[in-house]
Amino acid sequence: RFVFGSSPRRVLAQEIAASGCDGVLAGHCGLPFTRIVEDKLWHNSGALGMPANDGTPRVWCSVVTPGARAGELCIEHVALDYDHAGAAAAMRAAGLPDDYARALQDGIWASCDILPKDEAKAAGVALNPRMLTWAPGVSELDWPRAADAPALAPGKFADPLRTQGGEPRAQVGLDALRTLWINTGTLCNLSCANCYIESTPRNDRLAWISAAEARAFYEEIAREALPTREIGFTGGEPFMNPEFIEMLGEALERGFKAIVLTNAMKPMQHKAEALARLNARHGDALTIRVSVDHYTQRLHEMERGPQSWAPTMDGLRWLADNGVRVHLAGRLYSGEVESLVRAGYARLCAQLGLTLDAHDPVALTLFPEMDARADVPEITQACWGLLGKSPSQMMCASSRMAVKRKGAVAPVVLACTLLAYDEAFEMGETLRAAARPVALNHPHCARFCVLGGAACSQG
């Protein structure tokens, strides 16, 4: 069987027990690692014939020598450089599959089908050579072990005006409301593993917004002569809202550009005829942004669930065949090399017939991972100069989001698309009331926007 660093401890323990030995030196999975299980050793040296899927062309071996004391072993994980370009050229000259020749050069496996979730998500994360010393009785010696993200320090993001250190907290004023986001409701046909808004087929904490409630915001934009040029629709899954096509059509008829965030699965496909009519009439103003969490089926389905890949691919082909402008939204897993990720999406787009530039950060938006529990620096007013950034670059300088909470009489306007449940970021029931500055008093403000440089709007 394949045994990986993330394999259950009971699996490794059973194998070691069957050997009757103090430890096992193994291969087969192609990835180097060392694990200690119940004081026993499991060591895999990696492979000399293929990189370790870590985004570098190095290959791996181990040097195992006696330690200074009786019973000790010194285990050195060694990364080797070699003429990978020459090897790849020889493979191509021999007519061997190009995917494997490319893997020798970019260090990313052509197929990750055998990989468990943890190893698959670590693709592109460069490994560092390591020397380990083991002896029977040593219980803590795992390599490589992803460092757990430190927990958010107590007292951070508590005061909207001051950081934990007492410095003035950064704020962002509304320069101009260029994008209004409407959350159509949190119900979704999927239950994704890491949905920032926790959408599921049962989560209705944000209720359906009606077409009439959306119209009230359109009318306020016109009445107040606001510079809003784009309406964004998100969820949940917008196409599940029974009045979504009506509110989308009205936004387009009023001259707004519109962007719709969708998984392109059955809810969208059930509205295909109506969507095609809107595209025929307003195609220059309509963009459908489809969530494809990774360019490989395996990682996409790890996030979105089994059998979620094929329906999304069918939806993308329908959009391409019907001339709908398509953008994609993916995830940039921690440590992945962005250029390689974009190249992977480019290959996927070519296969689907999508005319999309995967190297354009607007056409393919790669979102950083978000974990509100993990530690992140607070942003002070002084950070703008230190980071070389401006408040005007943040989402909340140009956008707001309307949501309707379950049981509420009317929608409210929030500072941000990312903080749908945090009542501290509610700004009132009108766009005028929501025009005041926003204190960056949440971990997502730092991680996603200021340090991550991400945004949901098209520009």
Report the portion of residues in β strands.
Answer: 15-25%
Mean pLDDT: 91
Radius of gyration: 25 Å
Query: How far is the first residue's CA from the last residue's CA?
Result: 49 Å
| Strand-pairing-aware structural class | alpha/beta
Helical residue percent band: 25-40%
Largest sheet report: 8 strands, mixed
The strand line-up of the biggest sheet is 13-12-11-10-9-8-14-15
Question: What's the β-strand tally?
Answer: 16
Rough outline: globular
Walk me through what this model shows:
Helices cover about 25% and strands about 20% of the residues. Strand 12, helix 11 (about 340-350) and strand 13 form a beta-alpha-beta unit. It has about 450 residues and is α/β, with parallel strands linked by helices. It has helices at about 10-20, 85-95, 100-105, 115-120, 210-225, 245-255, 265-270, 270-280, 295-305, 310-320, 340-350, 385, 445-450, and strands at about 25, 35, 40-45, 60-65, 75-80, 130-135, 170, 180-185, 230-235, 255-260, 285-290, 325-330, 365-370, 400-405, 410-415, 440. Helix 2 packs antiparallel against helix 3 and helix 6 (about 245-255) runs parallel beside helix 8 (about 270-280).
